[in-house]
Amino acid sequence: MNTSSGAFLERPAFHIPLLLVTGFLAFSSNASISLFGETEGLYAIVTHTMMAAQDYVHLWLRGEPYFSKPPLFFWLQAGFIHALGWSEAALRLPSILSSLGTMITTYFLGRLLFSEMAGFWGALVCATCYAGLWFGPLAIIDPMLMFCMTLGMYAWARAYFQESSQWWYLVAFVALALGSMVKTLHALALPVLVMGIFLCMRRDRQVFREPYFWVGVV
User: I want to staple 66 with a disulfide (CB 3.0 to 4.6 A). Which of 31, 34, 59, 72 is the partner?
Assistant: First the structure.
């Protein structure tokens, strides 16, 4: 990397625009192609049935109650379909936007814990690794789950390390609660485990004295 390009990348003002362009190119590449794989089609059927019946409380699949997943992902698919009409792109937009959100949140998390360049390269890896490129744009629940978990971890870290940002505990637990509406307890198990291990290693009980922490828990 030459000196001029290195200096360009080291300017924080260009990080977010570069990441957004990269993420858009990475995650929107297959937005309009036909659905493929069993999972994309299955979730599309659940959303179609929900909209056809105008029943946004109970999920159905081929005439049977569908209890496998919570409703948030299907609600968002239905919202984009109402706005844009039925298309593969509308079905995939929740995942595409979630993948972009994960990438940008990773940037801020890396910047908070390490440095702006660490955040930039970490976010770039999110957008260009195999898992991000392949699963990020698909009409499946995992990109949204990952975004909720990443946002929850970032918000918790910001509240913990910045005394003036205690209200971010609320953001953390709201994000994890939304994640639980995407894939039940999967959104809570790993982040809460990481938080618990971190606090045990530091032998820090101060967090339990923060009112915003308990408001978030409630």
Answer: 59
How many domains are there within the chain?
2
Check whether residue 176 and residue 130 sit in a common domain. no
User: CA dist 86 to 71, 82, 103, 127, 216, Å?
Assistant: 19, 8, 27, 27, 37
Q: How far apart are CA 159 and CA 85, in angstroms?
A: 40
pLDDT value, residue 41: 93
- Rounded to whole angstroms, the Cα distance separating 30 from 33 reads 5
12 burial class (0-12, 13-18, 19+ CB within 10 angstroms)?
middle
Question: Of 110, 140, 170, which closes a domain?
Answer: 140
Q: Is-contact 162 154, C-beta < 8 A?
A: no
Distance CA 142, CA 156 (A): 21
Output the pTM of the full model: 0.91
Q: What angle do CA 184, 190, 192 make, to 5 degrees?
A: 95
Q: Using CA atoms, how far apart are residues 104 and 3, in angstroms rounded to an integer?
A: 26
Measure Cα distances from 138 to 38, 91, 135, 214 in Å.
Answer: 12, 9, 5, 36
pLDDT digits (tens, 9 = 90+) for 83-112: 999 999 999 999 999 999 999 999 999 999
| Four-residue CA torsion sign, 134, 158, 213, 201 | positive
Count of beta carbons in the 10 Å neighbourhood of residue 26: 21
Query: What's the domain range around 68?
Result: 1-140
